[in-house]
Write a structure and sequence with these properties.
The structure holds 2 protein chains of 2 kinds. By secondary structure, chain A is mainly alpha-helical. Chain A has 29 helices and 5 strands. In chain A, a hairpin with a 2-residue loop joins strand 2 and strand 3. The longest helix of chain A has about 50 residues. Chain A starts with 5 loop residues before the first strand and ends with a helix. Chain B contains 3 helices and no strands. Chain B is elongated. Chain B starts with a helix and ends in a 13-residue tail after the last helix. The chains are: A mainly alpha, B mainly alpha. At the A-B interface, helix 29 of A face helix 1 of B.
């Protein structure tokens, strides 16, 4: 390699730990998947959890090593990235001696180290939680290896040192999520959801592949260290095509790569797979929504951020899709009645915020934008994981996904620890000071303001208010909703379920929830320094090296944005207040979608009919006008030609088989004749 | 008695054997024909051993008769095997017609 942008370091424990981070989850997958899972589900659950705990410990070693040996070394400026290891996997010749290498590496920079910590820590807690959650499930022995595999693929993705490795693990993440979403394969809805997730993300990945090939081949390298430098952007920044159809290669390539992120992070209009993905077991949803899968898209965009910031058009697309998805999904979440569906739309909305934050970097403050997005990914992982785990505990307790039935259970008294932990997470995601969400959301708003992106700023503020509303609604309906529940038609059934199975908070399921409550509350204050210092500087350098001018390193918004937190907090509090008034104080359930619900409410509850539009397009348009003629061609022309050819070969073969009569004497006669001819024409007398 | 007479006898035996092998339908008869062909070859061995090769001084009495003895032993073993197959075929099919045994046809 010898790239000057990469720091060289020698600290043996870190190299070993880096290998361990990738190998331990893989080992857990192989041991449990090939052998232990079939023997004993319980043993495999504990093995997976212990190995994931060890991975989390190793990630702490890597993080501390990164801090001590790379981050703080002043002579390495501006390189704060390093490789823990890198092996060449495939070399492709580009002609004229140039070689394009696909490598397997372990890239260390502020965001990859941060993501490794988050993923291993959250995977460990989710594993711990799953021991309790999957205890009575017949497929538990199959569950834990897949969970380990999921963590492995995501860890491999975030530590990628180059685009080829990213793509490789990107697809593995997709495959792992497919297996886990469809984990209950006897359930048709789960199978449909897993197919939907896989096909939609595959569609986006096709563009990703095209983009990464265009970028990799033209820049001469897949390595992030190279792609994020100024030469790569300069090499790509020219027009391709002919006549009327010309594209800027930089825009086209980055846009293609962003399409992959678009699908993976479920931005509108690819968003439809994510709400359905909750058909998998709740721990899986928790993992998908917090640390793995969906954040991969945002992470990829951030990973190539310096390159993206050189392509202004692409950044604009990032910003618009993100901002639109944020508001769009938040509005839908306000009208859902399924616990996990509310959380799923909430994730969509938060991902939109992260994306739009990245996109605002085109306004001249790429560092602030980059920081804000990464900060929000970080805090969001904790409180969203907590929310899903506590939702899982509630579902486990009442045997229903319906938020109206949950209200009937008196869960506040039955599950006090879950109640308080959920309260913290709800307040955190709503952006209430001093919980974690407040700081990261503020950073996003500041980034939009500092970059002069007022559209994204308005979208962020609007999303903040809506988020506070639907999360408060979620919380009040589950834990304070007894009066509403008593009016719901299912209420008697739910109450019977309560009596049959008295609600208990299992220790193994409550412990991870309580542990997660700590970072959900505090990580904002603690992490602020790291993100506004280190990560911001890195992003700014990246932007500068890619040719985008950073106007001033000290935050420019310091004077102009002091009103922002106040406005955001007022909006959040008023959103939560309205929810409290409707769902906890008046308790009339007026906003449930029934026949009296206004039309706009029904549109929200039906998710703007996007799924129906897709079904219509797929069945009436694509199926009738594309698939049906294609099938006819396939059946009659393609298959017909092949049938004719195989028939001809068959008939020829039959002619030949006549010679094989099975008559031994005929064979002998032919052999004798042959010997005669041999001697007759080649012997000495000839 | 000379080499030519022996070779003529051998050629006649070989032809009779080959004719029988190709034409006889009974498996035992075909085997007998096969034996005739082998014996024709054996006569050649002995004849060349006794009268020498076509080139002077090349006949080796010991090698020729030894080879013939070996061939007799091998043929005997071969016949034992072949007769075992004949018995097995007869048990299964209740006949020994070679033309009916065409299970290998294409």
């Amino acid at each position: 390699m010898g790239d000057t942008r990469l720091a060289a370091f020698a600290w043996e424990p870190m190299h070993c730990a880096a290998y361990g981070i990738l190998l331990l989850p893989l080992l857990s997958f192989l041991i449990n998947g090939l052998w232990l899972g079939r023997k004993s589900a319980r043993a495999s659950a504990w093995t997976a959890t212990v190995l994931m705990g060890a991975t989390a410990a190793l990630s702490i070693i890597v993080a501390s090593g990164y801090r001590d040996h790379i981050l703080t070394a002043p002579h390495l400026f501006p390189a704060r990235a390093a490789l823990a290891f890198e092996h060449t996997w495939l070399d492709f010749s580009l002609g004229s001696g140039a070689v394009l290498s696909a490598r397997l590496g372990f890239y260390l920079d502020p965001i990859s180290v941060m993501m490794v910590l988050v993923i291993s820590f959250i995977s460990f807690l989710v594993n711990l939680y799953s021991i309790g959650y999957m205890k009575d499930d017949a497929g538990a022995g199959r569950f834990f290896p897949l969970l380990s595999f999921f963590s492995f693929t995501m860890l491999g993705l975030v530590v990628s040192s180059n685009l080829a490795q990213t793509f490789f693990f990107w697809e593995l993440v997709g495959a792992a999520s497919y297996l886990l979403i469809g984990f209950w394969y006897a359930k048709p809805s789960a199978v449909a959801a897993s197919k939907k997730a896989f096909i939609l993300t595959r569609l986006a990945d096709a563009f990703f592949l095209m983009g990464l090939l265009a970028v990799g081949v033209n820049a001469g390298s897949f390595d992030f260290a190279h792609l994020n430098g100024p030469e790569a952007a300069a090499a790509l920044n020219h027009s391709v095509g002919a006549g009327l159809v010309t594209f800027n290669l930089l825009s086209l390539g980055t846009l293609g790569i962003y399409m992959g992120a678009w699908g993976k992070s479920a931005m509108f209009p690819f968003h439809v797979w994510l709400p359905d993905a909750m058909e998998g077991p709740t721990p899986v949803s928790s993992l998908i929504h917090s640390a793995t899968m969906v954040v991969a898209g945002v992470y990829l965009t951030a990973r190539l951020y310096p390159l993206f910031s050189a392509a202004e058009y692409t950044l604009r697309v990032v910003e618009c899709t993100g901002a639109f998805t944020a508001v769009f999904a938040a509005a839908i979440a306000c009208a859902q009645t399924d616990l996990k569906r509310i959380l799923a739309f909430s994730t969509l909305s938060q991902l939109g915020l992260m994306m739009s934050a990245l996109g605002t970097g085109g306004g001249g403050e790429p560092g602030a934008a980059y920081t804000a997005s990464m900060f929000h990914i970080f805090t969001h992982a904790f409180f969203k994981c907590l929310l899903f785990l506590s939702a899982g505990a509630v579902i486990h307790a009442i045997h229903s996904n319906d938020i109206r039935e949950a209200g009937a259970g008196g869960l506040r008294k039955a599950m006090p620890r879950t109640y308080w932990a959920t309260l913290i997470a709800v307040a955190a995601i709503a952006g209430i000071w001093p919980l974690s969400g407040f700081f990261s959301k503020e950073a996003i708003l500041h980034a939009a303001l500092a970059n002069g992106r007022y559209g994204a700023l308005a979208a962020g503020l609007c999303t903040g208010a809506l988020t506070a509303f639907y999360m408060a609604r979620y919380f009040f309906l589950i834990f304070h909703g007894s009066a509403v529940g008593s009016r719901a038609p299912h209420d008697s059934r739910a109450t019977h379920a309560q009596e049959a199975h008295p609600v208990r908070e299992g220790a193994l399921m409550t412990l991870p929830i309580l542990i997660l409550a700590v970072p959900s509350a505090l990580i904002g204050i603690l992490g602020k320094g790291f993100f506004t210092g280190t990560v911001r500087l890195w992003g700014a350098e990246g932007g500068a090296s890619a040719g985008v001018s950073e106007s001033a390193l000290p935050m420019r918004h310091a004077s102009s944005g002091s009103w922002l937190p106040a406005v955001a907090t007022v909006l959040a509090l008023s959103g939560a207040g309205i929810a409290w008034y409707w769902y906890a104080f008046r308790k009339n359930g007026a906003a449930f979608p029934d026949r009296r619900a206004p039309a706009w409410y029904r549109i929200l509850a039906e998710k703007f009919y996007i799924d129906e539009i897709y079904l219509f397009l797929a069945k009436r348009v694509a199926s009738k006008w594309i698939a049906a003629p294609a099938e006819w061609t396939e059946r009659n022309i393609v298959n017909g030609a092949f049938d004719w050819m195989t028939g001809a070969v068959k008939r020829l073969a039959f002619l030949q088989s006549i010679a094989q009569s099975g008559q031994v004497q005929a064979y002998i006669a032919v052999a004798l004749l042959g010997i005669y001819l041999l001697f007759r024409f080649t012997g000495p007398g000839y | 008695m000379n080499l030519t007479a022996c070779l003529l006898l051998s050629a006649a035996l070989f032809s009779i054997g080959a004719y029988g092998l190709v034409t006889r339908r009974n498996m035992i008869a075909a085997l007998m024909s096969l034996e005739l062909m082998v014996n024709a070859a054996l006569i050649n061995f002995i004849a060349f051993a006794r009268f020498g090769g076509t080139h002077a001084g090349q006949g080796d009495a010991q090698a020729g008769s030894l080879f013939a003895l070996f061939a007799v032993a091998v043929t005997a073993a071969e016949m034992a095997l072949a007769l075992a197959i004949v018995v097995a075929v007869h048990r299964q099919r209740r006949h020994l017609d070679i033309r009916e045994l065409d299970g290998l046809h294409g």
